[in-house]
Each structure stands twice: as structure tokens, then as C-alpha cells.
Design brief:
With 654 residues, this protein is of the alpha+beta class. It is built from 14 helices and 38 strands. The protein is globular, with a radius of gyration of 26 Å.
């Protein structure tokens, strides 16, 4: 008996040394995550171990949560409405485990067929300050990694990197050889094998800082977040930005029950990444009861083309005559909006009520309204935030339809709280928003669908006069697989002046795109952009009416989206359906290629006609060269794309 008692006591002493663990598989069984009671986890895909990590949370006062008790499990399979995105509804199908970490704290893990996610949930009523959220991903082996570093001009030290515009090219390097001093903004892609990709992103910020990833420490990526600002001053561009002078020693304040951001890993092949909608699925549900007033659409834009119109008897610029010309162009072509960009309000005045004398704003808004066109106004971050309620009320009553808010250049807790507050206030006044100078939307477009677009992309504006070494064409073939996983993006395509690799040159006043005309047309179907720009000038579009007709016709939100083919950094082909019509876009990098466009998704019982815009035979010499072909579609079509080329098509029911 004595020996038995000793054995039992020994077992009781030893058991706590062994971590308990639970496994969670995706509905199709291809993905599996194993989680221990110490909140370490490992991820397997099709039987191969990819990476592991740990999760912990520390509150001010040094209370750390890094262990959990036995979880509750759940299975969900439902449809999420997505009226202003890439499909009418999205299937949300996953398995989950919900752990108790401590009083008032839970951790939920979810497994989807295309990825994994976890987040912390606070259920308490009292405010708490989060000192640190520990996030790390350690891969089994070194692997090629695609990152978008914060640009060099914002990399003096760690603090300076928190003030950035989330615009840069992608660089590819081994995980172990990433720059340990430069943070990367999300999403980031790791390639553990030739066919497996892991993309890290996040969703549902709202008053909590966004995450950067830092590499260069073996095969580990570490999450980094800015501490909450304590003191700020107004400065930066035209004194419309907030500059942080001092930060708190914690990253966020939780005022009551809420979920913290989801830590997302999209896992699969290239097409899995390009097709994933996990950022939207994991966001908070829509907070706007009646969304019928929200109108997506296309926008005639002034800034990129430098207000360059010709053949008129007035001097073009920021004045009434110029904007009436833009409005007439939009009205004639069925374009829903005109944006009045930087310049309509008095620079340096610190508010959005002082308008330059050349602009009669009520007159312009009325002129546009009479012609079925909405006006969207550019606004700097500080003046918009300072008078948020009054600005929204005043301009909504005038008839303005929305704002393009710019130069936030941060993702700390103050900035993400502003985005949420701005979206809620704008919604009450039936105003749409385009967040420029900001990070990826991270699901805000589900919670607040009046946020139709967000920048956080190295878009076409970078070709106006920046680094001649910029390879925009290659970047274009990367973002559908990487940046676009984070949500819609204000890329601003549509250039009618197009350059080959040899003929392109940057110009602020006469800008042009890299790649062919059909590359630009193809981007309208390839990119998610519910509020989509026509970046070039009305006179350039009027001289290219055939292409303008295609751009004006293509929808900006969809009933169905299918990524048909593609390889990160090489090419992509995407098909989108609105009603009975299909729109197809394809783009390539600087390598010419033939692609077979699979059209087997067309209904076999219906009759269609196809209208193709294809690179011309001389598009490799003159990037504006294209041809238009109308035909009855078959089950597939071979399309040739020139270097930097592309194609666009509309397939309609007869």
C-alpha cells in the first residue's frame, strides 16, 4: 500500500510538468493546429509541420495571461452578407476552440479551409490597459519571405517607423536574412515550400494598434505594436498630421467587453491567397442598420492627372470651370462621383470651412447634383478629426456625398480609434469614406460598409515622380495575392498614357503608367475597389472613348468572384460576375506570356457574346497599342499578353 501511495504522489507531482494539448482541424481536414495549455501552438498543413508560435497578453500591473483551461468547441457554417465587396454573400465555415485564460479573459482559435486565426476576448466591465500582446511565428526551416518594409526615409529608429504611409514595394529574402532593424507592414508572406504559402494579417482593430512584423532572428517573425500616444502635436504635411511626442507604456486601453484583433494566417497555394476573404469574415458585423444609401461606383479624379484638360477657353486648375468640366465628363459617361482633391480648402487654415475664393462649393455641388454626379471632398486628418461632427453635418446638408480622408500615416490606438469614430459619424450623415494615407482596412469595410475604400498600397500615384527604379508592373502582379487579402484598396488605375519598360518616365504634370493600355484595363477586374478611380484627365479619356466606355461600364462591387489562374509576382487572371454578365481581367509582369482563360464557368444553357480588349501586336513597342475583338465565347480562350501587358473582357448574355 505504501508503494502504491508513493506512486500516486509521484504521478501527481509529475503530471503538471506535462502540458495538455488540444487539436483543431479545418472542416476539410487539411489544416490542423495543436494548442497546449501554455498557449504554445503548432500548425500542420496536409501532414507537414509548418510553423509554431506562442500567445500571451500582459496588462499594466504585470498580470500576464499565458495559460488556459480545457476549451469549448464549436462548428459554424453560415452565410455573411457582403453587399459592397467581391460577392453578394460569403460562406463562413470553420471549427473553433474557446479557452478560458483567466477571469474576464478568453482566447478563441478558429480553423478554416483556407487558414487559421486566433484572438483574445475581454469580457470584463472595468477599463484595463494592455501593456503587451506577445505574437511570434517560428518556422521549422528557413523560407523565402515577401515583405513590404517601411520606407528608408521613415527608418531613423523604431519610433520613426511608426509614422509611415504603408506604401512600398515588396522585397523577397530568406526569413533569416530579413533586416532586423526594419519593420514590415502587413500582410507578409512566407513560402515554406514551392507550393505552400503562409500569409500573416489581422482583422478588427478599432482602438487597438495594428501589427508590424520584424524578422532577421533565425526563422522567427515577431509582432511589434506602437504604444498608445500620450502627447501629440499638429505638424507634418500642411499641418494636417498628428506627430507623437511621447507614448504611454502600454499599447491600448479597453473600456469594456470587446475582442482584440484577430491574428490571421492564410495557408494554401497562390490562388488560396488571392481568393481568401478571411479578413472580412473575421471582422465585426455591420453596424449600419440601413445601408441602402451607400452607393459604390467610379470616380473622376483630378490630382493624378494634375488638372490637365485642354481644348477649353479657361485656365485649368482648382476653380469652378475646371470642376464643372470634370462633372460634365462624369455625367456624360455615367460615372457616379467626382473627387475634389487637395486644394479646395485654404491651406494652413486648420479647418475645412474656409474655401479658396476660386471655388463656389455650394454651386459646384448643386451643378453636380443636377447632372446625377456626387461630389467627394478630400480632407486632411487633423482638420477632419477636429471638427468631425460639424464637418459631416455641414457638408452633408450641402449635398456632398463623402470624404477622402488623408495623411493619418499611423496605425496606433489613437489612429484606429479615429477610423472607427469617423466611420460611425459619417454613417449618421449618409457619407461614404475613402481612407487615404492609411493602413490596410483590416475588416473595417464589413463593420462600417460606408468605408468603401482604403489606400495602404503603393498605387499608381507613385509613378508621378518618384524613384525611376520602381517596378510597378511586378508590384501589380503581387498585390492581388498579398495586399488585397487585407481588403479593398484605392490603387487608382486607369492611365491612358502608357509606357513600355524602355519608354516609361516619371512625370508629376504629365503622368503615365508602366505597362500596356490593356494592363490598365485589366486591373479593373483584378483589383477589389468599391470606390474606383479614373486617374487620367477627361480630355485623355475623351480621346480614347472606346477604353473609357469599358471603364465606365464595369461594376465596382460583385455577385461572384473567381480567381482563375496566377502566380505571385508573375501574372493573374480574375473573373467577376454582376447579374448575368462576367468581366475578366488579366495582367502579367514584364514577361510576355500566353494564358488559357478557362470559361467553363459560363452557363452551358445560355448564349453569350464576348468583347475582348487585347494587347496589340506592337504593344511591346508602343504600350498604348491594343485591339478589340468581339466573338462568341467557347469553353476556353488563349490570350497573349505583351511584356507588362494584360487584357480585359466583358462576356454578356445575348
Amino acid at each position: 500500500m505504501k508503494k502504491i501511495l508513493i506512486s500516486i504522489l509521484t504521478l501527481l507531482l509529475v503530471l503538471p510538468c506535462f502540458a495538455r494539448e488540444w487539436s483543431l482541424a479545418s472542416p476539410d481536414g487539411a489544416l490542423e493546429i495543436t494548442i497546449t495549455d501554455k498557449l504554445s501552438y503548432s500548425v500542420n498543413y496536409r501532414g507537414t509541420h509548418l510553423y509554431g508560435g506562442t500567445a500571451s497578453l500582459t496588462l499594466v500591473g504585470e498580470q500576464t495571461f499565458s495559460s488556459v483551461r480545457a476549451p469549448k468547441s464549436a462548428k459554424v457554417d453560415e452565410l455573411i452578407p457582403s453587399p459592397f465587396y467581391r460577392a453578394t454573400a460569403i460562406r463562413d465555415c470553420y471549427n473553433s476552440l474557446i479557452f478560458i485564460a483567466a477571469k474576464d479573459w478568453k482566447v478563441e482559435f478558429r480553423a478554416y479551409n483556407d487558414g487559421l486565426a486566433y484572438h483574445w476576448v475581454y469580457t470584463g466591465q472595468n477599463p484595463v490597459n494592455v501593456k503587451e500582446e506577445s505574437i511570434n511565428y517560428t518556422f521549422v526551416e528557413d523560407a523565402r519571405t515577401i515583405v513590404s518594409y517601411i520606407r528608408f526615409d521613415r527608418c531613423k529608429d523604431k519610433e520613426s517607423q511608426f509614422f509611415n504611409s504603408f506604401e512600398n514595394e515588396y522585397e523577397e529574402a530568406d526569413l533569416s536574412r530579413l533586416n532586423p532593424q526594419r519593420m514590415s507592414f502587413l500582410p507578409v508572406v512566407v513560402k515554406p515550400s514551392d507550393r505552400v504559402r503562409v500569409l500573416f494579417s489581422e482583422s478588427d482593430l478599432a482602438g487597438y494598434p495594428g501589427m508590424y512584423l520584424l524578422g532577421g532572428n533565425g526563422t522567427t517573425l515577431k509582432g511589434v505594436q506602437a504604444c498608445k500616444p500620450k502627447k501629440e502635436h499638429v505638424g507634418g504635411y500642411l499641418d494636417i498630421q498628428k506627430i507623437v511626442d511621447e507614448r504611454e507604456d502600454f499599447i491600448a486601453t479597453l473600456d469594456g467587453p470587446r475582442g482584440l484583433p484577430w491574428r490571421i494566417a492564410v495557408i494554401g497555394d497562390d490562388l488560396t491567397l488571392a481568393s481568401s476573404q478571411l479578413t472580412y469574415q473575421l471582422a465585426s458585423p455591420c453596424r449600419i442598420e440601413d445601408t441602402s444609401w451607400i452607393k459604390p461606383g467610379k470616380v473622376a479624379w483630378d490630382w493624378w492627372n494634375y488638372w490637365n484638360i485642354k481644348g477649353v477657353d479657361f485656365e485649368a486648375g482648382v476653380n469652378n470651370e475646371t470642376y464643372k468640366y470634370y462633372i460634365d465628363f462624369a455625367s456624360k459617361n455615367g460615372i457616379e462621383y467626382v473627387i475634389m482633391d487637395d486644394g479646395w480648402s485654404c491651406p494652413g487654415c486648420g479647418n475645412l470651412f474656409d474655401i479658396v475664393p476660386e471655388i463656389d462649393m455650394p454651386g459646384i455641388v448643386k451643378y453636380a447634383e443636377e447632372r446625377g454626379v456626387g461630389i467627394i471632398l478630400w480632407a486632411g486628418y487633423v482638420p477632419f478629426d477636429k471638427d468631425l461632427e460639424e464637418v459631416c453635418r455641414h457638408y452633408s446638408e450641402m449635398g456632398v456625398k463623402g470624404f477622402k480622408v488623408d495623411f493619418m500615416d499611423s496605425n496606433d490606438a489613437h489612429e484606429t480609434a479615429f477610423l472607427d469614430r469617423a466611420a460611425e459619424t459619417a454613417a449618421r450623415y449618409h457619407l461614404v469614406l475613402d481612407f487615404h494615407g492609411s493602413h490596410i482596412p483590416a475588416g473595417i469595410n464589413r463593420k462600417w460598409p460606408n468605408v468603401l475604400n482604403t489606400e495602404g498600397v503603393n498605387g499608381l500615384e507613385r509613378l508621378k515622380g518618384y524613384d525611376i527604379r520602381l517596378d510597378q508592373v511586378r508590384y501589380d502582379t503581387q498585390i492581388p495575392f498579398i495586399r488585397q487579402v487585407g481588403g479593398p484598396m484605392d490603387y487608382t488605375q486607369g492611365a491612358m498614357r502608357n509606357g513600355t519598360r524602355e519608354s516609361y518616365h516619371p512625370s508629376n504634370t504629365q503622368p503615365m503608367s508602366q505597362g500596356t493600355r490593356c494592363h490598365q484595363l485589366g486591373l479593373y477586374a483584378v483589383l477589389d475597389s468599391p470606390l474606383n478611380m479614373l486617374c487620367d484627365s477627361p480630355t485623355n479619356y475623351e480621346s480614347e472613348q472606346e477604353c473609357t466606355d469599358y471603364i465606365a461600364d464595369i461594376p465596382t462591387v460583385w455577385d461572384e468572384t473567381r480567381v482563375l489562374d496566377g502566380v505571385i509576382g508573375e501574372f493573374i487572371v480574375t473573373a467577376r460576375r454582376k447579374g448575368g454578365d462576367w468581366y475578366i481581367g488579366g495582367i502579367t509582369n514584364w514577361t510576355a506570356r500566353d494564358v488559357t482563360v478557362d470559361l467553363s464557368f459560363l452557363s452551358p444553357d445560355a448564349q453569350y457574346e464576348a468583347d475582348w480588349y487585347l494587347d496589340g501586336v506592337n504593344a511591346h513597342r508602343d504600350a498604348t497599342d491594343y485591339k478589340r475583338v468581339k466573338e462568341v465565347p467557347s469553353s476556353a480562350r488563349i490570350v497573349h499578353m505583351a511584356p507588362g501587358g494584360g487584357f480585359a473582357a466583358k462576356i454578356s448574355l445575348k
